[in-house]
Amino acid sequence: MLQRRKWCTGIILAALAALLVIAAAAVTDRAYADEPEKCRVKIVVLDKSTGEEIKDATPMVYDVKFEGGDYVYVPVTPEEDGRFLLEVPEDEWERDYRYTYKAEAKGYKYEYKSKRQEHGEYIEFGEKPQDAQGNWTLTLYVKLTPQTEEERLNDIRTESKKALSDYKKASDYEAEDQETLKTLIQTYSNKIDDAKTEDAIKQALAEGKGEIDKLVTAQAKNNDRYASKLMFTDRNGKTTPLLTGEKGQYEASLSLLDKGGVFSVEGDPAARWTVKKGLWIQSMAMNHSVEYVTERTGSFLTTSIPDDTEFVDAEISDASVTLGDGSKVTFTLKISTKEEDKTAAVAAVKEKIGGIGEVTLDSGDAIRQARTDYDGLLKSLQKKVDNYDVLTAAEKKLEELKKAKEAKEEAEAKQAKAVDEKITAIGEVTLDSENAVTEARKAYDALSDGAKEKVTRYGDLTAAEKKLDELKTAKEKEEAEAKAKAEAEAKAKAEAERKAKLPGKVSLKVKSGKRKAVLSWKKTSKAKGYVVYRSTKKNGTYKKIRTLKSAKTLKYTNTKLKKGRTYYYKVCAYNSTGKGPMSSPKKVKVK
Questions:
Q1: What are the φ and ψ backbone dihedral angles of 567, each rounded to 5 degrees?
Q2: Secondary structure (DSSP) of 395-447
Q3: How many domains does the chain have?
Q4: pLDDT value of residue 572
């Protein structure tokens, strides 16, 4: 088998080399001069009605091959100058049946007599001339018939409706969705027929495909229904979901390092797993065909594989699982067998070990992951992990730290118990409990964080502190209220004494004069003098206009007033204690 593979590989490499030579020859303009089997073909496209050349036409050449019992037309890519470099068959009969040619142009149609001429007419190489450099050249003509706009649109409508009809297979959907698919095709075919422009036709086609894309195939629905239940348990016993992806498209990515793992379906021991391809391995002088999945057991690479086995082929296989109820889940199973993947796996393990760094109690996950990845390697690959001693040293250090932590936690538990006892000793909280509460708090605060976490009655301590604060606050409030009451009473007494010393209320009278107002009042008790206020509104702002500093002055004349205006006046008496009450406002209209 290996010899046959090497032989096939040689053939492929030789073919690739030949293709490279041909590709290189096509780059240079005259590279085919010394190759008489090559011919450069120019296609001129003409308007059939006028005979004029159509400049924006697109010439096309097809390489005709016979495969699977039918002809296959493979498009040939033109060179930069728009010409086609074609190989001229040596066989005289094949020369006229190797290539076909045609052209397309907007506003024109290519007319062919039968279905077999759909890709154009056959190129005849018998009349090919030579240019000055000895190159074979051939000029061909294609005549296109002008189309009316409606003919062109009808062709586009026909092509678009066919594209819509062929877009999806009805058999891929459930019965209900098949009817929906049928309705969508009909609906948007009608829209295509009703479209009046090329853009409108394209839009209708795009919208139709968009609506069809919203339908979910029967298999995709089934995949979505069960995909999350497919699990994979590795040889270390770790179980994880097998598939990744969404919307009915799922894949599983495994490598030979997962050898010995088991597939399963949650709640369905009767599930059967299958794949389409096998895997070739080489062990010493023998070849073995190993199935990825054993259908009976659902396990991965269960065949006994020696540690020195080298895998020489990589596969990407379509896989499926048939559930106990007969439903099926399909997915792509990707298996990595490349040598560089093995090298990468070793490098990844070395990186995991190197990433452990300084070992602390928080290094457990990193150490366990490095150990798991190391144990998952084939034994032949484990030997290539040259920093394995770092892993074992880290594991030893972690155990030492764990023991030290246990001893520390034991000491912290004793300290925490002593604090719990102090908290218990507080008992019912009164104002006399302050010393006991303070002592318990100091003992707790002196603990390490670890010991504090082990105190079981810390809530009782905070409750006791809260109760003590409430009692102290209540006492302080009571004392403050008593003090405030005494101060208020003293203030009220002082205010009463002050008011008793103030002058009495002035009894004011006002008379109008010529552009003046004459104010008068009786002598007010305890007055040292008087203050006169004026406003233009009864309830407006009164401004001070005169201070009379003698208690004997019982009259005041306000002059230079405006004739016909109304004024309001107030007067109050004052002494060394302060101002007495304001008189009632008096109104006067100036003459």
A1: -130, 155
A2: HHHHHHHHHHHHHHHHHHHHHHHHHHHHHHHT-S--GGGHHHHHHHHHHHHTS
A3: 6
A4: 96
Three-state SS at 111:
coil
Residues 6+ apart with CB under 8 A from 104: 57, 58, 60, 110, 144
Q: Record the pTM.
A: 0.41
Looking at the DSSP bridge assignments, the partners of residue 278 are 291
Q: Which range of residues forms the domain containing residue 184? A: 153-215
Could you tell me which residues are beta bridge partners of residue 558? Answer: 517
pLDDT tens string 137-150: 899 999 999 988 89
Beta bridge partners of 100: 62, 122
For the segment 481-506, the average pLDDT, to the nearest whole number, is 92
Residue 354 falls inside a structural domain: no
Mean pLDDT along residues 202-208:
95
- Give the closest residue to 317 by CA, choosing from 293, 353, 339, 345: 293
Could you tell me if 315 and 292 lie in one domain? yes
- C-alpha 95/C-alpha 90 separation (Å) is 7
* Nearest-angstrom CA–CA distance, 41 and 140: 7
Task: Please determine, for residue 350, whether its predicted confidence score (pLDDT) is greater than 60.
Answer: yes
Pick from 154, 66, 70, 143: nearest CA to 108: 143
Q: Does the structure show a pLDDT above 70 at 29?
A: no
Taking alpha carbons only, the member of 116, 108, 17, 12 closest to residue 58 is 108
Per-residue pLDDT of 564-589, as tens digits, reads: 999 999 999 999 999 999 999 999 99
Domain boundary among 115, 144, 173: 144
Return mean pLDDT, the chain: 85
Can you point out the beta strands (E) in 302-368?
Answer: 310-311, 316-322, 328-336
Q: Which residue, of 448, 476, 501, is where some domain finishes?
A: 501
Give, as one character, the DSSP assignment of residue 377. Answer: S
Helix or strand holding residue 136 (H, E): none
Determine what percent of the chain is predicted with pLDDT higher than 70: 86
- Three-state DSSP at 20 gives helix
Residues present in the chain in total: 591
